[in-house]
Amino acid sequence: MKRFANVILMLVLLFGLCSCSSVSSVVSNGTAETYEPCETSFECSISVECSSVFNNMSEFDSAKLEVLPPDGIILKEQSVTVYEGESVWDVLSRVCREQGIHLEASNTPMYNGVYIEGIGNLYEFDCGPLSGWTYLVNGQSPNYGCSRYVLSEGDTVQWRYTCDLGKDVGAEGGGNSK
What we know:
CATH architecture: Beta Complex
CATH topology: Ferric Hydroxamate Uptake Protein, Chain A, domain 1
């Protein structure tokens, strides 16, 4: 009887603690970050573009011409399912993995976040000393990094490659992707 009670208790705890399943995403330094996507989900949209490069071709690393999409679009805006508690980083890394888009990022303990080094083989400094990746949510440049911005239903996430610390892509706060 005691054994049966222990089994029941373990099953109750197991189901209670596992209402969310773990998903890991690997950052370029080989460490895994784990988040808990719950059953609660909603829709958001995400896009990735680098059209600012076309206005700055004199600064662009000519060895990278083959990775530059002709229309500047790496990921056309698309609707994605977002699980409660997911950050901009969680969604970007999942979508890039699912779509086969190259993504390189690193943990930055100093800022307690993730820094986006490159998307689609386009990296920071490929188009001058002020270039790199930044993001907007609902047309606004958040004042903190992508791994700390938790998404809400209906958010629109735009990843943009900037050649001027965000000023050229409507992200006046700069290319902060931590």
